[in-house]
């Protein structure tokens, strides 16, 4: 026996007295000299005694070795390794001493010799944690924190929760001891020796009576101590000496702890509790709180090993392990962190472990999971969706005779799809709504057809589904307009999700919609496909990109479907001109991938090649049904030309198709690239021109060929140019071409005549375009001035002459004489007496059609308007002369085409002659109330363009007419108006809504008695056309008010409230505005506006109506709320509140007295607003009334009487009542705590539910015992 174990008796007694918590230094004379060699020798000599019959205790007695001294000396070395600054040798000695102690405990007779001591045993078990360097662990923890903060596109403030695991943030000093790789290997050997010693002990020494010691076994921490190559094998028949890796030893130790030798049923619960954190990918720090670990390959492998171990335990123990497996799964669900990667891994773990359950227990857990999925915490509902998706990847369970009848329905995949996934489609949280839609789309991609079949059931007729979803109505936890499944059309609901206010929900709904279309769950109809294409113009950047990707995926799945092709073009092509550069790049990438890169030579084309066939189909649509996308398509080629995308091979491939079946598409592409290609095969292009002149070519192809001719004109010789010019002139003078070809021909003619000298170019244009003008003048004279000309009128020919005249006159204004102008005017008036050459003036107050009833067809007159507008563009005096006539034409003309073209002409003239046209903008804006939707939409679009470019200002009644379009009878026009106001005009002028708000109140009520507002000039007909006066229009007026207020800033809301008080309420108090019938309407409407939730400052409405998007949770948003409150204080300070009360309350009190004297019905609206004010400014109001207690008592009494009256009225109301139309919300006293004004706003819906049809309270967060979750501890 080494000398060191013979310690002084006094020193040994002191160690035992201190119960191995501290020791005095040993005498230097007996300090070990050979390091760990002495321990190794002693260990090797003692190891055989674990199995030998000879007693080692007898040997100790024969050699005079005191067991008490031996234990004391071992504890000295064990405690020496606890220090953070311990040397390598001290750490190795501590591990070896601990191993020796555990070895001695395992030798028969250790109990009799009193070797076991609880504190020393636990200290030895903790030696691994104390001796293994913590620097690597701490570094990994810091990396984990950085990873969690960078996880996702937008980080959320970290929140602490008792149910969730907090990251241990204890800051400790860095270790000063440096460890070389050789040192770490030596320490690892000591750790392995200690663990093996513990395993040998557990085989011999039961811990049933020492549960705390069993809890302190460090096996769970060692499961991810080091990576393992290959798969671990679990089992009781393994030899400890053959085990080489730490995880292998650790799981063997956990398996030993599961036996009855080390406890009753709690032992299994204890083991599963330790494995829980490995599955959750967490590690316990020194503070005892688990911390997240970075999801590295090693951590993921350790998680898989833990799942495999639990599966092995369940397989071996079977029935006794099932209750604890259920507990484990429940705790995984409740302790899962709200991070995507961790949730996914956790859901996979739950699914794998559920596979070990028999059908009855499986169905019971799914029922529990269904309740869990309806809890208030968003993280729970999100995880339930992930678990459902993981379960859908497994084979469907079939019921056996052991499953209760009421649980059979929980076994099917159909329940998971219908109730767990689709049931969350209307969740209160936008995060959950979006995730549910994403999961719905993922169900369609699963290999099993069960998910697709279940989803098809959902989107079939709702009548056939009503009997299968008895639970669906209980899923809804919102109190908004989301109705039960049985009463809502599923497809309509999905389309509403595509327009959801939350960006993430719209993205996920697009993914779901694309999946349904891709797998033919819903019909590939134009309406469904339009939903996708329209989202490429969504305000949110991420939604636009998602829509583009969905269209690409759908086109890949259905390349032959023409409707899909059209939707793809209408979504992708306009995105080329998007304001966001990244969207432009995405659209260009889609176009290049689908069209540009697929153009091969005609010789290599095969109709069996789906990609090439798709390319030419798309080009064919662009030439036919989607010609309106041409200008966006041209923009794409402009961008590509800067990137040198058009190679010589690409051009040659295009030209090879110009004489084949895809000639139209080939000429389309050539017309886009010809201007950027330095060299083309001019011979083939000129041959195509000759074919065009000699044969009938489609209109679109003709235009494209003419465009190519214009692009290559500068490279042609003069003889060729002259020949083409002669062909074009001859062609134009025949007047047999369609209007589109006429315009393209004149444009090509001008490009062919372009010369270096401007004078030469103008001479060319005067010669050829002037010739066309003369031909048109001669023809129109023959038709109009001939007595029988109108009777034998060829409408098509007259239109072509008028159109050619207008197009040609733009290039040769000097060739346009008065006679031509009068001829065009005559087409509109058809009064020969007015057409004489001596007649130069036109009565400015009369429209062109008022000189004489026109005998010309409507289409001829409409084209005459366009031609006259083109003539005015070149002659200012003509504009001045005809503008009044155009304005009157808008008012009196009954022909749709004529009025539409007049709007176009006047808006174009506004760009050229802004000041001159400005006085006629009211005439144009009056068309916003035209009876024809086409004219209203066109006027709205053109006025928006003029306002954007500041050719038109917000003067007079223009703003109010524009904003009134928000309540247009056509929903598409109202939606377009909202888009124009919010996304185009408000960005340019952020204060325009607040500047005009007060005047809106007077204008829309047609109230003109105020000295300042609503004083701009309007004729009676325009007033009547735009009037929203009367109770029948109240909802429309409040729709406008709400829209304006929603887009106010908090500062604007505060200022507008003060201005309303000063400019409206104060005017009634001072008598400036009479309190007559009209005045009462305005005053009542003013109180209705002040009572709207949209006018409340966000700092106040956020506190009152928290949880509109996310339900309130246990400390879930604690940190976020704290940050928000700091920001809100900057906007809503106590000073601002005081200013508000001091300016509003005196006016309200005076108004109340006045209304009481006159017994005005407006008093009800005033009291409703006053009660609402008490909620938001309770403390300030109390302070205000502190000086006048009598007044405070009177106000309190009046408010109570008002409440009783309102509740009495509500008791007789039906649920069809609508308080959202601008009336004052109802209120009720919540409690009276001694203060004067302790009132809380309920809202009309709450009163109706309380008084008429009380409903069951929403299901909140269940307690643990309600969910049958047994705690581990």
TrEMBL record:
Residue spans of biased composition, Acidic residues class: 163-175
Broad class of where this protein is predominantly found: nucleus
GO biological-process terms attached to the record: cell division; meiotic chromosome condensation; mitotic chromosome condensation
One CC-aspect GO term: condensin complex
SUPFAM superfamilies: ARM repeat (SSF48371)
Compartmental location: Nucleus
Pfam assignment, any one: PDS5
Keyword terms of this UniProt record: Cell cycle, Cell division, DNA condensation, Mitosis, Nucleus
Entry annotated with the keyword Cell cycle: yes
Region (Disordered): 143-176
A GO molecular function held by the record: histone binding
Biased composition annotated in UniProt, kind: Basic and acidic residues: 151-162
Transmembrane annotation, as ranges: none
Domain Condensin complex subunit 1 C-terminal residues, every copy: 898-1063
Function: Regulatory subunit of the condensin-2 complex, a complex which establishes mitotic chromosome architecture and is involved in physical rigidity of the chromatid axis.
Subunit (UniProt): Component of the condensin-2 complex.
The protein, known as: Condensin-2 complex subunit D3
